[in-house]
Design a protein that fits this description.
Layout: H1 42-49, H2 53-67, E1 74-75, H3 77-86, H4 96-103, E2 111-112, H5 113-134, E3 141-142, H6 144-153, H7 160-170, E4 178-179, H8 180-187, H9 196-206, E5 208-210, E6 216-218, H10 227-244, H11 246-257, H12 264-275, H13 284-289, H14 291-313, H15 321-339, H16 341-352, H17 363-374
Antiparallel strand pairs: 1-2, 3-4, 5-6
Helix pairs in contact: 3-4, 5-8, 10-14, 14-15
Length: 385
């Protein structure tokens, strides 16, 4: 990370690590100068961090210089994006556009040092206010119990496993408590309002799993967040994407079943001439309908398989490793695909059905014909031989 000196170093938990002072990793390192609710100033932040004004100025200047690697004297979107990448923050965890917007006071697309400094002042005071609200004992440290209480009061139900992972992610020195310095490092570049709900969802974005084409589900979903919201959002997104690509899907299937030389343009002309515009969307309704059950089955199968693999390995489901996640994801995909395979088969038959009248066959009648003429095993042709 050239140009940043010792201002920023990467840690595997994606913190913004700033110049550190010599501190002991115990309660004596904690400091909360505000013992009861009230106005918060930069002086309170300095006392909590045990920094002098000069040390804080140098820290902020060093962080600005890290982002301003080209030494232009200002930051733009490209520099902020590159800086976040330089911190090795995952793409889904970055807020470059939002960070630029909240720092850019005059909306000219550039953030000079004064703009950056104002953001740092406001953000650190905001973070200290919520830190103070969570630290009900006012000893300068957040204990897991205090964090759990704050989450529950915000309506977020979280189990002990999630809480342990939350604290572990923020607690850089692994002493079981969160100091204000650790809290600040975790949230300093988070440009949105630092409410307990936003902070929890921000942490959730770090702990996510991708289990396939239709489902990217945060691992730390609480009961408060409601899994159904993810399925509804994923279902809508899946339906929109499948509808947008339906003409290509229809053409792909038509070309695959041609016994003569497959040509794209004649296939397009034939569909247009015989069925019109809607012909390109034949079978799309069924394609859209299978999105939700496929995603739901895949997600729950993945969770169950993670638990099973964790038990076999003698650990918990969080620590099954890359190989375990790959195995669980692959098996979950196979289970989901097998479950919705009959719908896939009917969709393919519907898309390739030759109709002289130009009218697509009735879906129910088509499925009934397959059942009567070929038997129930026909719905698994290609899986069951």
């Amino acid at each position: 990370m050239s140009g940043a000196g010792n201002a920023v170093e990467h840690r595997h938990r994606h913190h913004v690590i700033l110049p550190k002072k010599d501190t002991n990793p115990n309660l004596t390192a904690c400091c909360n100068p505000v013992k009861k609710p009230g106005p918060v100033s930069i002086d309170h932040v300095l006392l909590a961090l045990r920094e002098t004004k000069e040390e804080r100025d140098a820290r902020i200047r060093s962080l600005f210089s890290f982002f301003d690697a080209a030494n232009l004297g200002y930051l733009d979107y490209a520099q902020i994006e590159a800086g976040l990448s330089g911190l090795q923050i995952p793409a889904g965890y970055k807020y470059a556009k939002e960070l630029l917007k909240v720092c850019d006071a005059n909306r000219d697309g550039r953030v000079d040092y004064q703009d950056f400094r104002k953001y740092m002042d406001d953000k650190e005071m905001e973070l200290y206010r919520i830190f103070q609200a969570i630290d009900v004992e006012h000893n300068g440290c957040i204990f897991p119990e205090e964090l759990w209480d704050a989450l529950v009061k915000a309506g977020i139900e979280i189990d002990e496993e999630e809480l342990a992972r939350f604290v572990e992610h923020v607690d850089k020195d692994n002493n079981g408590i969160i100091t204000f310095e650790e809290w600040r490092d975790f949230l300093l570049l988070y440009p949105h309002e630092a409410t307990i709900e936003n902070i929890y969802h921000h942490w959730e974005r770090v702990c996510h799993v991708d289990i396939g084409e239709q489902a990217v589900i945060p691992e730390g979903i609480s009961k408060h967040v409601h899994r159904s919201k993810y399925f509804i959002a994923g279902g809508i997104a899946g339906a929109a994407s499948r509808t947008a690509t339906a003409p290509l899907d229809r053409l792909k299937v038509v070309l695959q079943v041609q016994t003569t030389r497959a040509c794209l343009v004649p296939a397009i002309n034939k569909i247009w001439k015989e069925e019109g515009f809607l012909g390109f969307f034949r079978g799309n309704g069924l394609n859209v309908l299978k999105v939700a059950p496929e995603s739901a089955i895949k997600f729950y199968a993945y969770e169950m398989l993670k638990n099973a693999i964790g038990e076999v390995k003698g650990g918990d489901k969080v620590d099954i490793g890359p190989g375990g996640r790959l195995l669980a994801g692959g098996m979950a995909g196979a289970v989901a695909q097998t479950a919705i395979y009959p719908m896939d088969l009917v969709k393919t038959r519907l898309q390739t059905y030759v109709c002289e009248s130009g009218k697509a066959p009735n879906l129910g009648a088509l499925a009934k014909d397959i059942w009567i003429q070929e038997g129930p095993r026909a719905f698994y042709k290609g899986v069951v031989f």
